[in-house]
């Protein structure tokens, strides 16, 4: 048995308890977790914003060491260091063959299949298919990305979601060019990764927007050239900082209607608005027909940074090794597994970057 943070019902707090993991079956891999990031998507699963079969082990931004493999596994071997991929592509469906593996039809299949049990035999489901808030987990080999053994696993964990999503939004979805102006609405773990990637892409100015003044210093350290507190004048201030036009590219990293409208209003005519944050199906965003026509903006949803982890993780690690992406600065708190429930509950008022669970 291993210890895990279990969600017994959506809306209830997590409880750390023993679970029973099976040996890996054909095509499966058992991973001993070293670290896992606490992501807002985990909170959305816990509170019912996103659907999740329960009881479940949440956590999806994880890194660890392969303990054992099932029959037919060729991708990794015991002892390999890996990141967990919570949206593993099948490489066979229409989207995968069309070069959009982040939209794979089967990427979410594992989340609806039990991967472990409670000691009484009750089936447990892996949150987002990975179940990373546990000492160990069992996943499909497709859900592992091998990384070099000299990359610190406790830092590499944040690559699995925050950095792939945030940096991918900049480098893949928006393809930001040198000299373009960028706005980032919401500077949590993903937003901070957007800031870093915008700096890497040569954007200028890079304007961070958040509701919490405590985030200013962190945002500036991650690449922002300006920091604004979100209010009714935010879009006007951004236009003043961008030759009255508005920003070339804006990123919304919260998933709220207000944040999306701020990102929309802050973009120039013909600009690109990228929605990265995961919002609720019960939170409509309204646009009138005239503004959609008149401003000529592009509004794009961004899932997992439009990334292919097998391709993008090695590229991002190259930037890390070159000192162009700062994983240490992204992690602003470290906790134990017993503290993960409190960390989830505190996410709406968190003033830092990523909180990391250390095993």
Structure description:
The structure is a single chain. The protein is an alpha/beta fold. It has two domains: 2-160 and 326-358, Alpha-Beta Complex (Quinone Oxidoreductase, Chain A, domain 1); 163-305, Rossmann fold (3-Layer(aba) Sandwich). The protein is 27% helix and 26% strand. It contains twelve helices and 18 strands. The protein has helices spanning 40-47, 94-97, 153-156, 162-173, 189-201, 216-221, 234-241, 257-266, 289-295, 309-321, 327-330, 340-346; strands spanning 2-7, 15-19, 28-38, 56-57, 61-69, 81-84, 116-117, 123-126, 136-140, 144-147, 182-185, 206-210, 226-229, 247-252, 267-275, 298-301, 331-335, 354-358. The strands form three sheets. Strands 3, 5, 6, 9, 10, 17 and 18 form a seven-stranded mixed sheet that branches. β1 (2-7) and β2 form a beta hairpin. The longest helix is centred in the middle third of the chain and has 13 residues, at 189-201. The two termini are 15 Å apart. 50% of the residues are buried. The model has no long low-confidence stretch (mean pLDDT 96).
Total beta-strand segments: 18
Q: Secondary-structure element sequence?
A: EEEHEEEHEEEEHHEHEHEHEHEHEHHEHE
CATH fold naming of the largest domain: Quinone Oxidoreductase, Chain A, domain 1
Going by CATH, the homologous superfamily of the largest domain would be Medium-chain alcohol dehydrogenases, catalytic domain
CATH architecture of the largest domain, please? Alpha-Beta Complex
Q: How far is the N terminus from the C terminus?
A: 15 Å
Q: What are the segments in which pLDDT stays under 50 over at least 5 consecutive residues?
A: none
Can you tell me the CATH class of the largest domain? Alpha Beta
